[in-house]
Amino acid sequence: MSDHLVPVTVLTGYLGAGKTTLLNHILTAQHGRKYAVVINEFGELGVDNDLVVDADEEVFEMNNGCICCTVRGDLIRILGALMKRRTVFDGIIVETTGLADPAPVAQTFFVDDEVRAKTRLDAVVTVVDALNLPARLNDSPEARTQVAFADVIVLNKTDLVDEATLAALETRIRGINRHVRLHRAVRGNVALADVLDQGGFDLTRALEIAPDFLEDETHSHDEDVSSLSFAVEEPLDPAKFQAWIGALLQEQGGDILRSKGILNYAGEPRRFAFQAVHMMADGGFVAPWKDGETRTSRIVFIGRNLNRPRLRRGFEGCRA
Predict the structure, then answer these.
(1) What domains are defined for the chain?
(2) Could you tell me which residues come within 8 angstroms of residue 174 by beta carbon, excluding any fewer than 6 positions away?
(3) DSSP element (H, E) containing 25
(4) b or e along 149-183 (b: 16 or more beta carbons within 10 Å of the residue's beta carbon)?
(5) Cβ pair 127, 156 in contact under 8 A
(6) Which of 95, 109, 158, 280 is the most exposed place for a label (fewest CB within 10 A)?
(7) Tens-digit pLDDT profile for residues 299-311
């Protein structure tokens, strides 16, 4: 979670949602920053050849300083090769395929020691198609999983539907993933600051968007994926929390797509930021609590078959 780690954005979204358009936006914008963009096949982007400064088999340098890579082999290998380059990157963007569960890509940044030593998972960004998402949520588990995994959702193609449809769709999205940061877009034209450099799981931003999401005891049963949130006012015992969360993820990690939180450990002036993808967990101390700030520990679970009373008891049982 340290500042020297390169932030990584995982970009996902169903086929035709507009990932390619958003990637083109990032690659061709004159933002003055250097990003490495890792994609499945360079040809999928359709970026004009005159934007490519030089190229070898897998790595392409864009004329705005960005590096573009194709993954024909192992993601960990290409990330290792990127980090050995003399270029200092402001961030790395990894695109998944349209039918992919984002979990294996996200887990890469928890499981490999070399990758963890140099990078951190900044955010999962999911691009969704406002016109076709209702049908995809009904017929595609992958589409629901991509929504559930997201820290940020780009609701694309908003010009193709009316306001009432958009409002209903946003409500449905929040039934799956209540704390997600949601931005409307046409042809992927979203501010880069809304999708890059998100700072990992930031509960302050989540609360700004949905101030009541921690207090609301109801959750949607419309989908097989839902999110639950809990808060504890008293300080937590770190050993109790690590033992509880470890056992929980070992037992139910297959159903818990993501879990993340900001924790107040007893006797510790800094916040502890925790996040997990299925059974793979990571965390570290981040900024100190502010003077006068209420030091509340908050945690979010997103997944299937979540048992609210059991999860609440477990989290509250971690009090010091």
Answers:
(1) 6-207 (3.40.50.300), 224-316 (3.30.1220.10)
(2) 180, 182, 210, 220
(3) helix 19-28
(4) bbbbbbbbbbeebeeeeeeebbebbbbbbbbbbbe
(5) yes
(6) 280
(7) 989 888 899 999 9
The DSSP bridge pattern shows strands 119-129 and 6-13 to be parallel
Edge-to-edge, what's the strand order for the sheet holding 152-156?
52-55, 59-62, 67-70, 35-39, 91-95, 6-13, 119-129, 152-156, 181-184
Coil, strand or helix at 287 = strand
State the residue for tokens 């951190």.
120
Please give the pLDDT value at position 286: 80
Identify the pLDDT of residue 71. Answer: 52
Task: Read off the tokens for 239.
Answer: 């050993």
Return the ∠ at Cα 183 (arms to 102 and 153), rounded to 5°.
10
Distances (CA, A) of 146 to 99, 117, 124, 204, 290: 9, 26, 9, 22, 34
pTM value? Answer: 0.75
Nearest-angstrom CA–CA distance, 82 and 138: 39
Q: How far apart are CA 109 and CA 259, in angstroms?
A: 15
Q: Which structure tokens are listed for 41?
A: 């096949």
Torsion of CA 143, 144, 148, 153, to 10 degrees: 50
The β-bridge partners of 246 are none
Question: Residue 276: which of 251, 311, 301 has the closest Cα?
Answer: 301
Distance of alpha carbon 172 from alpha carbon 155, whole angstroms? 12
- Specify the pLDDT at position 184: 94
Structure tokens at 142: 């992958």
Strand ranges across the sheet with 226-232: 226-232, 297-303, 256-263, 270-277, 280-288
Pairing type for strands 59-62 and 119-129 reads: unpaired
Amino acid identity, position 121: L
